[in-house]
Amino acid sequence: MKEQPAKINSLKHVLFGSLIGTTIEFFDFYIYANAAVLVFPQLFFPGASSTNSTLESLATFSIAFLARPLGSAVFGHYGDKIGRKVTLVVALLTMGISTVSIGFLPSYASIGILAPILLMLCRFGQGVGLGGEWGGAVLLAIENAPPHKRAWYGMFPQLGAPIGLILSGGTFLLLTDSMSAEDFMDYGWRIPFIASSLLVIVGFYIRLKITETPAFENSKEEQKEVKVPFVTVFKLYKNQLIFGTLAAVTTFLVFYLMTVFILNWNTKSLGFTNKEALLIQLFSVLFFAVFIPISALAADKIGRRKMLIYTTIAIAVFGFFFSFFLTTHNIVLVTFFVCLGMSLMGFIYGPLGTFLSELFPTTVRYTGASLTFNLAGILGAAFAPMAAIKLSDSFGIASVGIYLTIAACISLISLLVISKQEHKF
């Protein structure tokens, strides 16, 4: 029995248990984001103007963020009660089945209003699954980590975001580049949704081999289990939940401005082709991926909270440069701007999972960290692309930057006032 912790704490186990799972989850999530801009407006929301069709499509995109706290509450409850392993497997299947189902949906032309309704239902399932996935994956990593490497271990599931985005964006780029526009709109867009079933099978196999984390086992042995983790979080850890949520808002906002909104802006306002816009996105994601481990190393040296504070200040300043870079049709300047934004995203995202998890004790950590992360998703991302489109249409692109700066200031205040106490692992 004493050999088990050494096996659990191996970096290889953390890598395959947390990184691969979140990569699959985020791949599923982002193929929807790409389709919501490039495909769904025409197939599921026809008849309206181009802008309104896009807004209606992005409204379904936001449904997943509204569903994620439900996933946090449900999966968090069982993750804190019966363990991380089983919960992670079920969360992955929930997300996977919802994604594959989208690939088989008929369009509005075939079944009318039922088509967008079914799309919204599948999107809701994606949100519930991801709401339970992220927290469990992060805890699998950091609850197996030595104290001085907690941010380093915690960045592995965070790497799933850029890897999933590269895979999803690359898939769409490959399809749009190798197929005619008619074939892509007819059936090509369905391929990544259906093909994700292969990734889900791999992830399911790996998740079944996960061993429960030492922190959870110790908590169980000491009989520290709480009856209803969701209630306990709101009753005893309200400040951590509120300020942790506000602290994470900017992370979501900067990401979805640099991906979904920029994809729409580059194709609709700057006149770039879908291929050019996707290439900009894919290239910028490399910077996102590179700076996640760099930020984690720095966070283990100077502290997770300080790392987030410094990066949030940088993002607040970054917001003032929207009008300078995004009013030009120079693809080099636009690419530089997006890469800078995604670099900042890497700096703030790397230590975020560890920081939020350290706000809560083991008995409610799955629920608390997941709720905090996903409530921030509602505030920072659920309506961000739509709000940014409306702002840019009404007041110009500079207003989108101001929107980001204001959010960064709110996050900064929250980081400054939040409790510095770290709970025992």
Automatic annotation (TrEMBL):
Cited SUPFAM superfamilies: MFS general substrate transporter (SSF103473)
Transmembrane segments: 14-38, 58-79, 86-105, 111-140, 152-175, 187-206, 241-265, 277-298, 307-325, 331-350, 371-389, 395-418
Domain Major facilitator superfamily (MFS) profile residues, every copy: 14-423
Main location: membrane
KW Membrane (keyword) present: yes
Protein topology in the membrane: Multi-pass membrane protein
CDD domains in UniProt: MFS_ShiA_like
Gene3D superfamilies membership: MFS general substrate transporter like domains (1.20.1250.20)
GO cellular component term of the entry, any: plasma membrane
Compartment(s) of residence: Cell membrane
Keywords: Cell membrane, Membrane, Transmembrane, Transmembrane helix, Transport
PANTHER family, alphabetized: INNER MEMBRANE METABOLITE TRANSPORT PROTEIN YHJE, SHIKIMATE TRANSPORTER
Name of the protein in its database record: MFS transporter
Natural source organism: Flavobacterium flevense
Gene label: yhjE
